[in-house]
């Protein structure tokens, strides 16, 4: 995946771990994407969603805030709608709950380097 392949893709990252937020930001930059905001909760990110106009939201799952599943559904009703990707920690039960909430894709945190860039490359083409 070349840096130019994700040029212009705008990301909002939601995760409770500052270290993980920094590592995702470094990874995104290495691929040419831009992290326009990083938040600890989905509710914090939602406040600035219109202003930030992200192409994708990368959301820790299970989320740190209980209302995140409801907010995922709310974001799905917006236009233009950012793609929502759950960054999975844990087992298949969490994968199912993320998909039931309405995320567009699920990527295990351990597989971000292999799976996230190709997924985001589809955004760069649109």
Report the sheet with the most strands, covering strand number, pairing sense and barrel closure.
5 strands, parallel
Number of helices: 6
Helix content: 40-55%
Whole-Å distance between the termini? 17 Å
Rounded to the nearest angstrom, the radius of gyration is 13 Å
Structural class by helix and strand composition: alpha/beta
**Low confidence ranges:** none
What is the CATH-assigned architecture?
3-Layer(aba) Sandwich
Oligomer: single chain
The CATH class is identified as Alpha Beta
Give me the strand/helix succession: EHEHHEHEHEH
Kindly identify the CATH topology: Rossmann fold
Sum up the overall morphology in one term: globular
The name of the CATH superfamily reads Response regulator
Strand content: 15-25%
Mean pLDDT across all amino acids: 86
